[in-house]
Predict the 3D structure of the following.
Amino acid sequence: MRSLLITGGAGFIGANFVHYWRARYPDDRLVVLDALTYAGNRANLATLEGSPGFHFVRGNICEQSLDESLLREHAVDTVVHFAAESHVDRSIVGPGAFISTNILGTHALLEACRSVWTTDALAAQHRFHHISTDEVYGSLAQDDPAFTESTPYAPNSPYAASKAASDHLVRAYCHTYGLDTTITNCSNNYGPYQFPEKLIPLMIVNVLLGKPLPVYGDGGNVRDWIHVRDHCHAIERVLQAGRKGSTYNVGGDCELDNLSLVRMICEIMDRELDMNAGLCKRFPAARGGKRARSADLIKFVKDRPGHDRRYAINGRLIREELGFVPTTSLEKGLAETITWYLSNEQWWRAVMTGTYRNWIATNYSNR
Ligand code: NAD
Ligand code: TYD
């Protein structure tokens, strides 16, 4: 039986991981530490509240004394570190929070683990797993080989730079202090509970609301897409059998340019709207249902500054060493995700109120 501290467990991937883990290891203790920024939502974990072995703590990872006390109080042997500022566009407008949480916060957490795990006999067996991104490797040209674990770091956005710095800290704490660490660098995730500022949920919501679908630049930027459930499975494999000090790249075997992806979302949603008159009634501004095509809403907007052209993952190491392969196709995963957003209108309407709308209005006149 493990005792896990899951930072950022009220955010998108963190919440999916908490549910994933709970379903597979119901006897493990789960302590979620989350500051509940705009991206964190306690409602994502509502079904677990009050259940034995589940603890939610609202707090900031930058507070080392809090981190330490949670490690001790719950005899934590496994940290799964998701907490971060995660949106590239926000990092361009205001990098400060990224430096604070992603770099200083990771450092505080590592220091807490070093202090508790290397002094308390109880944590002779421990693991610090750091969730990171493929964006640390920079941008690929169309014909470049995919990122491997030995691709040199070349982060281009403040977000990517802050994650690169945190990766280096994790690695250094293993090398210098002997902390048992692992890192996964994963590609673009999608699925339930993703805040509708990231490409896929933003497009789904905007189709329903009949709003423009902003495609940056020429829409030719390529990303590798992975369903969040597959990412959780990869993390599980690394926690079970990953080698101390290792880094594993995790991808969805699914490279696609943004414009094709947005068109795919539009087609799936048109099919839903065409088949379901009730949906057209619920979302009168949406284009489907014979009124017009959702793709008519696509609007090419000013490109993101420093926009990376292409990311691609070589997943050979995690496949050969840990037997991980992604199993959710983009078609299936997107359809499932769209169904989730259709069934959870209250959720996305609630998270999109207030500060988020003000932020978009201030920073993006083109939306
Ligand atoms: P998210 O923005 O949805 O969630 C981040 C969570 O961290 C939120 O719940 C937020 O409240 C919490 N948080 C932020 N600052 C905090 C602080 N100082 N202390 C405690 N909690 C804090 O992010 P996500 O998309 O779920 O990403 C999770 C992790 O996965 C991040 O580390 C991110 O870099 C990494 N990642 C994300 C993707 C992706 O496609 N979303 C891909 C690869 C890696
Ligand atoms: P995003 O979801 O922000 O993830 P990341 O920047 O971490 O890859 O964006 C995915 C891609 O979609 C990226 O190339 C930027 C592009 N994009 C748009 O074209 N329009 C949008 O409104 C957003 C949010 C992203």
Observations:
- The chain has a mean pLDDT of 94.
- The CA atoms of residues 15 and 135 lie 22 Å apart.
- Residues 3-196+225-253+312-328 form a domain with the Rossmann fold fold (CATH 3.40.50.720).
